């Protein structure tokens, strides 16, 4: 078994421990979060996608719209960041080059770190540290990605016990979903093994899921994969679709933007369209994976990413590749 697969299976325990360790602690921060003029969410790579997905939870639970900024772009907004703001900075290693450099521009504000390394440069620079304690992660971000999201969800839900309870149910759902999707994922992986490209299209917070899924597939399988908004895909990129093109739609709410219409239109162009969702579909021949996810779309991204973690690992193995290594980069990109 690959380290990546082990790390995927670690997730329920990692998320449960994080919830147990911090659910009382974050309740003390509710006033500070509500009083903040702006909440900045900052990261790079998988951490940036966690920021994009996590922002929806702050909007849903706190009625605040966080400002998501890639670490490399913080210098452009440095003059607007002040003592009335909170910068939540995410880096699994706490040593990512651009994230460490961004800290120089955040000296005027309160920096809260979400990291898997309590002794990292990021942790040492922060006024508050939320350590993921996910254990060593060898392969692409799986358990540190979902743990970062879990921490953002808890911060966003810290003002109400009802919303925090919804977050607390996530580890159990993840355990169920890992087991539930294994069979279909092995079939999909065999069918995706030799494709030229893959398009993963999301809605709402699962636009970030699509981007994270595409990143993992590129890292582990070397297949060009693109993750983006389903709606934005319709505004131009759809021109690249050809007969047989693999397209996976990932959405929590099938009815919100009429997913069936998009499914049918892409299928009519000859695309091989799959669906990852949380609804009870009738048996109409759709190649789908149904997840046991939370009813709150704003905190659905953890469960929605699980099939893609398994898919990336399975495709890599099917292609005779080693899921636990990288070709051109290191696990921690702290220099070029």
UniProtKB/TrEMBL annotation:
It comes from the Bacteria. The keyword Hydrolase does not apply. Keywords: Aminotransferase, Repeat, Transferase. The keyword Acetylation does not apply. GO terms for molecular function: carbohydrate derivative binding; glutamine-fructose-6-phosphate transaminase (isomerizing) activity. It catalyses: D-fructose 6-phosphate + L-glutamine = D-glucosamine 6-phosphate + L-glutamate. This is Glutamine--fructose-6-phosphate aminotransferase [isomerizing]. It is an enzyme of class 2 (transferase). InterPro entries: GlmS/AgaS_SIS (IPR035466), GlmS/FrlB_SIS (IPR035490), SIS_dom (IPR001347), SIS_dom_sf (IPR046348). Residues 29-165, 188-326 form the SIS domain. Its EC number is 2.6.1.16.
